[in-house]
Amino acid sequence: MRKEDEPVDQDCEILAEKVYTQHNSHSPAEVIVEAVAEAADADPLELAPMHDFIDPDAVNNLFSGTGTNTDGQYLSFRFDEWMVSVHADGIVRVRDVLYPIEI
């Protein structure tokens, strides 16, 4: 899926983009927190807990690659003032929903 195919908040600026893989030591939930921290220019420990917005275990289970066909899976959710999109191909994008791109 290309960036322009994303249906949610595509008119908002991407502030952080990270990639998780099944072969690295970070879970999808950890990569999401790192990406949001980068977008917020904050330490991950300064953020509100991820579980206040979405179940991190559910995210990890959905994108762990251990389920059946994960091709095309896509999840988008609000994390405080950020819109997070997670793709089955490992791409995590964080957008600032408060400041859309001027067209």
Considering the chains and any ligands shown, give keywords for the structure.
alpha+beta, 103 residues
Write the topology of this structure:
Elements: E1 12-19, H1 28-40, H2 56-62, E2 74-79, E3 82-87, E4 91-100
If you had to describe this structure to a student in words, what would you say it looks like?
With 103 residues, this protein is of the alpha+beta class. It has one domain. Helices cover 19% and strands 29% of the residues. The protein has 2 helices and 4 strands, in the order E-H-H-E-E-E. A 4-stranded antiparallel sheet has the order 1-4-3-2. The longest helix has 13 residues. The radius of gyration is 13 Å and the shape is globular.
Please write the string of helix (H) and strand (E) elements: EHHEEE
Shape by Cα distribution? globular
**How many β strands by DSSP?**
4
Strand line-up of the largest beta sheet: 1-4-3-2
Specify the number of helices: 2
Count of folded domains: 1
Intertermini distance:
23 Å
Radius of gyration: 13 Å
Strand content: 25-35%
Ranges where pLDDT stays below 50 over 5 or more residues in a row are 1-7
Give the helix level as a range of percent. 10-25%
Rounded mean pLDDT is: 83
The biggest beta sheet reads: 4 strands, antiparallel
Q: Strand pairing plus helix content: what structural class?
A: alpha+beta
